[in-house]
């Protein structure tokens, strides 16, 4: 049985990129549940890097891994918060593409 790679065996820049891509993926798909193999396919990234990145995000409490039938299924821990707050940034004048809103913000 092969041992999973350690962080020292995976390029640290690749590992950081995969963590960011996992965060972006789960932000866009907050109710997705998938295995490491499935996430690696979705992101087109090497399995060892995705495995380490998902494990580190789970250790931080961002992802949750559920053991089932010999494999771990990962999901976003608080996906409901992303969908509840999805429209709030578009209402904020700081993020508006309307030039008059931006001018008003800079004068305020």
List keywords for this structure.
single chain; three-stranded antiparallel sheet; Arc Repressor Mutant, subunit A; 108 residues; alpha+beta; 6 helices
Provide an overview of this structure.
Strand 2 (63-68) and strand 3 (71-76) form a beta hairpin. This protein is of the alpha+beta class and 108 residues long. It folds into 2 domains: 11-77, Orthogonal Bundle (Arc Repressor Mutant, subunit A), CATH 1.10.10; 78-108, no CATH class. The termini are far apart. Helices cover 53% and strands 13% of the residues.
Detail the topology: elements first, then pairings.
Layout (H helix, E strand, L loop, with lengths): L11 H17 L4 E2 L1 H8 L3 H13 L3 E6 L2 E6 L2 H6 L3 H4 L7 H9 L1
Helix pairs in contact: 1-3, 2-3
How many individual helices? Answer: 6
CATH topology tier name of the largest domain: Arc Repressor Mutant, subunit A
* Helix content, binned percent: 40-55%
Taking Cα atoms only, what radius of gyration do you get, to the nearest Å? 18 Å
CATH architecture descriptor of the largest domain = Orthogonal Bundle
How many domains is the backbone divided into?
A: 2
Unreliable parts: 90-97
> How are the strands of the biggest sheet laid out side by side?
1-3-2
For the biggest sheet, the summary is: 3 strands, antiparallel
**Class derived from helix and strand content:** alpha+beta
What's the CATH C level of the largest domain? Mainly Alpha
Mass-distribution shape: globular
- Number of E-type strands: 3
Report how far the terminal alpha carbons are from each other. Answer: 63 Å
Give the quaternary arrangement of the chains: single chain
- Give me the CATH superfamily of the largest domain: Winged helix-like DNA-binding domain superfamily/Winged helix DNA-binding domain
């Amino acid at each position: 049985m092969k041992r999973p790679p350690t962080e020292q065996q995976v390029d640290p820049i690749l590992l950081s990129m995969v963590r960011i891509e996992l965060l972006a993926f789960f932000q866009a798909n907050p109710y997705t549940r998938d295995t490491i193999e499935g996430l690696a396919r979705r992101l087109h990234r090497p399995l060892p890097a995705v495995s380490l990145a998902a494990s580190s995000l789970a250790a931080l409490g961002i992802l949750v891994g559920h053991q089932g039938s010999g494999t771990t299924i990962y999901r976003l821990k608080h996906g409901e918060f992303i969908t509840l707050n999805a429209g709030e940034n578009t209402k904020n004048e700081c993020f508006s593409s309307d030039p008059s809103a931006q001018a008003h913000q800079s004068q305020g």
